[in-house]
Amino acid sequence: MRIANLSFAFWLLMAGSLVAQSAAPELVGHWVAGNRSKGGIGSMWEFKKDGTLTMAPGAVVDMAYKVDGDKLILPPATTGPGAKPQVARIRFDQDAMYETSGDGAKALEQKFVRVSVAKPGDAPIVGTLSNC
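RE: above sequence
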């Protein structure tokens, strides 16, 4: 665990030094930890052209999804008996996707923004979470 903490600190220091420079083209983009803990802890890094880095450490979960009309359908949150898929409504407005889960007063809407310019053939759902 100590080695992992030292490695994490090293990468944070390295990322800080990149701010003063513009990023190398081969570094720019999204990177996801290939090796995660048994609990799924890893990190996602976004290196930007302007030399800044956004890093999100935490649980990294790969899962299938399905889009049916305005519904985003994810696997059940649990493996318990009677578990049902997670269903949210989605809508798109330019380079933003709005995802609404829950109903009535308990409805929660999150805004996701596209990280890069959409290219022909890109799925409209590709993007990242931002604050509303």
